[in-house]
Amino acid sequence: MSCGLGGPRNGWADVAANRLLAFGQHVWAVTDSEIRKLRHDPWELATRAVQPVLWLVVFGHVMARVRGMPTGELSYLEFMTPGILAQSVLFVAIFYGISVIWERDLGILQKYLVSPASRTALVLGKGLSAGVRAISGAVIVYLLTVVMEIRTNLHPLAILGVLGLIVLGSAVFSTLSLIMACIVKTRERFMGMGQVMTMPIFFASNAIYPLSLMPAWLRVVSRANPLTYQVDALRALMLPGGVSAFGLGVDVSVLLAALVALVWTAARLYPRMVT
User: Fold this and answer.
1) For the purposes of burial, counting CB atoms within 10 Å of the CB of 250, is it exposed (0-12), middle (13-18) or buried (19 or more)?
2) Of the candidates 202, 34, 195, which has an alpha carbon nearest to the alpha carbon of residue 123?
């Protein structure tokens, strides 16, 4: 009797394992194809250095002169460095969806949709590839901290955690970008939508000022903003003696929940790009 029951159970386990393996292979195939594009456009890495440099060197030094900024034992430059890293990730990821519009116009998207890969695997693969691309922003920011003598936590585990948060946060906002692309469908409308959304997401977060300075209504908005939790976790990992206001577990859980919800939504909207 036990052998008879064991057979079907093992069969279901094998089927589930094979499906999970195939899903992982499809996700990696999409991720790998997107990362390969970066090799043909090295200037993209150079242009990403401009924004963090401007914010840290210009804005950071100016705001550091403002007295009374409640940053605790941190200098203002230390306080804002994780926020600028999160900002560079956001600004790149939020315009990632335009690549889907280009793929549709070139006929590549249609080939993706008729492939054996599930819609979820396609969306998740693109989100993770955006995360891998965003790691270059971390390299730039860490180099700036060395040049500007900003204290950072260089423990290997802390750096590994920062890279994981960058991939996770970038996947969240690039998937949101894919949803925007599926809705507006044209490059002109998408660029306008991206510009409209970027600033509210950034300024309604704790990236460049603490939550305690915000009016009550803005604190409510900020707590619903995934960027707030990414910045909070980055501060805990990047800065010496850094702590998370919400708890690292809460920060990561919110980002994962946002990613799951956005991937689920994008996977259902994805086929609309070709209709």
Assistant:
1) middle
2) 34
Q: Is 64 helix (H, G, I), strand (E, B) or coil?
A: coil
Residues 6+ apart with CB under 8 A from 39: none
Q: Residue 192 is encoded by which pair of tokens? A: 């306008």
Q: Which distant-in-sequence residues (6+ apart) come within 8 Å of 92 by Cβ? A: 48, 130, 133, 134, 137, 170
pLDDT tens for 3-56 read 445 555 566 777 777 777 777 777 777 777 766 766 666 666 666 667 787 888
pLDDT of residue 89: 87
Q: Which residue has the tokens 């890969």?
A: 117
Question: Which DSSP category does 75 fall into?
Answer: -
Please answer whether residues 181 and 100 qualify as being in contact, where contact means their C-beta atoms are separated by less than 8 angstroms: yes
Q: What's the mean pLDDT when you consider all of the chain?
A: 83
Q: What is the dihedral of CA 167, 168, 170, 175, to 10 degrees?
A: 130
The Cα 31–Cα 25 span in angstroms is 10
Contact 137, 88 (CB under 8 A): yes
Distance (Å, whole) CA 32 – CA 38: 10
Task: Residue count of the chain, please give it.
Answer: 275
Distance CA(73)–CA(213), nearest Å, equals 17
Six-digit token string for 75: 């200098």
Whole-angstrom Cα distance, residue 150 to residue 143? Answer: 10
Locate the domains of the chain by residue range.
2-274
Separation of alpha carbons 215 and 147, rounded Å: 35
pTM for this model (two decimals): 0.85
